């Protein structure tokens, strides 16, 4: 049976909203970042997914801790599967059996409603199975040069973090939301015949990003990783009184002119 490499759980930084299921994770002080090189990304609200190849060169797609093998619970991944198989040859040429490409699959709206995505799959990490380490951001850029059809998450900042104030100041409007979000969501729901009131209740309509994802990097690899979840986002999750997997799928929107294939 093919071994599955689960994406590592990520510690919260102090002040972060603690999500359900993370109660057992340590909360780290911002001072633990002092003097280190940090990459800060916009944290995305989607399904953690990955692409790799088995020892006998078969394409493997996974979400969290399981391989995608079919069934009604995988409906939101239909396009992910079609896209990955379309580019399986190119992906194998770069990933081979050594590397795993992790990313956020953003087809189904969770709590954030994205209006302008460059793709439904946004890559955020490359794992080297031989070294058992994640490549640094710069090495990932070089690695992905041969995969122009792959988009990556937004990097907000690289350098040292000196204070909590500096960190929190990076939380601003999402780079993947445009215009009047509430108005666009209402119109979109009417177009898709979705319950507008219910969708608004289940959506963070502030237009702000979910939070931040931080990587401490050195010597070509990720050394540590942390996350900071905006409390307003977390409150919307609580107030919705439901889980996105139990709702009808409402697709997020791609930018005008974007084609997956």
UniProtKB/TrEMBL annotation:
Gene3D superfamilies: DNA ligase/mRNA capping enzyme (3.30.470.30). Signal peptide: none annotated. Pfam families: RNA_ligase. Keywords: Ligase. Residues 37-229 form the RNA ligase domain. It comes from the Bacteria. One of its GO terms (molecular function) is ligase activity. SUPFAM superfamilies: DNA ligase/mRNA capping enzyme, catalytic domain. This is DNA ligase. It comes from Ktedonosporobacter rubrisoli.
């Amino acid at each position: 049976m093919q071994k599955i490499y689960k994406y590592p759980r990520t510690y919260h930084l102090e002040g972060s909203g603690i999500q359900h299921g993370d109660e057992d994770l340590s909360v780290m002080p911002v001072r633990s970042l002092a003097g280190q090189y940090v990459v800060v990304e916009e944290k995305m609200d989607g399904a953690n997914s990955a692409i790799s190849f088995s020892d006998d060169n078969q394409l493997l797609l996974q979400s969290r801790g399981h391989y995608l093998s079919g069934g009604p619970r995988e409906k939101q991944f239909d396009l992910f599967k079609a896209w990955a198989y379309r580019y399986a040859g190119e992906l194998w040429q770069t990933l081979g059996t050594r590397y795993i490409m992790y990313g956020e699959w953003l087809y189904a709206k969770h709590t954030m409603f994205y209006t302008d995505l460059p793709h439904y799959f946004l890559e955020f990490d490359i794992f080297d199975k031989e070294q058992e380490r994640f490549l640094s951001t710069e090495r990932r850029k070089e690695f992905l040069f041969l995969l122009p059809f792959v988009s990556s998450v937004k990097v907000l900042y690289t350098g040292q973090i000196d204070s909590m104030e500096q960190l929190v100041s990076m939380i601003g409007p999402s780079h993947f939301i445009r215009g009047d979000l509430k108005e666009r969501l209402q119109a979109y729901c009417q177009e898709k015949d979705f319950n507008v009131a219910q969708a608004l209740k289940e959506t963070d309509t502030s237009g702000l990003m979910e939070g931040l994802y931080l990587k401490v990097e050195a010597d070509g690899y990720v050394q540590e990783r942390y996350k900071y979840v905006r409390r307003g986002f977390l409150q919307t999750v609580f107030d919705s009184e439901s889980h996105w997997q139990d709702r009808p799928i409402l697709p997020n929107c791609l930018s005008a002119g974007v084609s997956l294939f």
